[in-house]
Design goal:
The protein has 351 residues and is mainly β. It has no helices and 26 strands. A hairpin with a 2-residue loop joins strand 11 and strand 12. The chain starts with a strand and ends in a 27-residue tail after the last strand.
């Protein structure tokens, strides 16, 4: 089942919920919405251009936040356009039923790098926003000296701040093991990694830092080699001794890479995951009316929905304990380097 959003210049966006592709064609009826009917503090006007000032048609302009006074809403008020598509002049507009002071936008166009624009004020003046081609990253994945085709690799920026983060990028390797990321936001540091679910039967691709130069540049990563991965096994237990409900899952998420591996659990809560790259991981499992117990050694007080710890060797006895009750409140506390949870061995209640 899918949720479909249909947009067109000069019309109100229209959502279609719970769309079944096998049910036949979808008919979208859009209502015209002239800009002249909108109050100045309910609309933002813009124009997307390239580095030479030429209009960029069919760029996707997504709403990344809406500011009303001193409050910025990550989830804007109902009746706010989620995105717009630029026309042949590169122009677009976004509107909201509620008055606003400014919008944060993310812009993406074919053959251009994603880019964010912050605190753009609404009103009758049209903003001109320039996007560029970005940088490229290329390389080849090898296993035992031979090209590994059909596996997925990803990159994500190290900077995860709201104002700078432009998401992750994933691509598959070709028959010769080569990959090419094009139009990446330039001039920033990234993590390069293998998608864990894609490498389950092949090994592990260690996470590697990469720094990209400016627009038009290509960073040659060269040959990256798959290595034997680590094993993580154990059990999710309920403190009251009850069996796990059906469809309970365990999430194994890398702290550096933008990647998560989801494992289905049986009534006994046991799991066994192989070929994980070494690094810091957060582990979580959610069950209604239960919470992660603070007695778990890697319990993250700043984010009480998870364990957080380092995996450097095989670990086959991780026991994640959940107990009845509401989620514990978060309690941020600073730790010295080397004493942070992400630097310490991953552990549950087995110690």
């Amino acid at each position: 089942m899918f949720r479909i959003l249909v947009v067109a210049p000069g019309y109100e966006p229209s959502f279609f919920l719970k769309v079944d592709p096998s049910a036949g064609p979808l008919e979208a009826r859009l209502n015209a919405r002239p800009i002249t009917n909108l109050a100045p503090d309910h609309v933002l006007l813009g124009r997307i251009v390239d580095a030479q000032g030429r209009p960029v048609e069919n760029a996707v302009v997504s709403l990344d936040g809406l500011r009303q006074g001193h409050t910025t809403h990550g989830n804007p008020p109902e009746g706010t356009d989620p995105l717009a598509i630029t026309d042949a002049r590169g122009e677009f507009f976004l509107s909201s039923r509620e008055a606003f002071d400014a919008m944060n936008l993310e812009v993406e166009g074919r053959r251009f790098a994603r880019k964010k624009f912050g605190d753009l004020r609404g009103g009758p003046s049209r903003h001109t926003l320039a996007i560029t081609e970005g940088a490229a990253l290329s390389g080849r994945v090898l296993k035992d000296g031979k090209p590994l085709k059909g596996v997925a690799v990803g990159v994500v920026s190290k900077d995860r701040s709201i104002e700078n983060f432009t998401g992750d990028f994933v691509i598959g390797t070709m028959d010769d093991g080569r990959f090419l990321f094009s139009n990446l936001p330039p001039g920033r540091a990234y993590y390069f990694y293998g998608i864990m679910s894609s490498f389950t039967n092949s090994g592990a691709l260690p996470t590697a830092p990469v720094v990209l130069a400016g627009d038009g540049s290509t960073h040659q990563l060269g040959d990256v080699n798959v290595v034997p991965g680590l094993r993580l096994a154990g059990q999710v237990r309920l403190a009251d001794g009850a069996p796990l409900p059906p469809y309970t899952r365990l999430s194994v998420s890398s702290e550096q890479a933008w990647d998560v591996l989801v494992v289905d659990l049986g009534p006994d809560g046991r799991f066994d995951v192989s070929n994980l790259p070494p690094g810091s991981y957060n582990i979580s499992s959610r069950i209604k009316s239960y919470r992660i117990a603070a007695g778990n050694a890697s319990f993250d007080t700043s984010n009480p929905f998870r364990l957080l710890g380092q995996l450097k060797t095989n670990k086959t006895n991780l026991t994640l304990l959940l107990e009845p009750g509401e989620n514990l409140p978060s309690n941020s506390s600073s730790r010295a380097p080397g004493a942070r949870l992400q630097d310490l061995p991953l552990a549950g209640i087995e110690h």
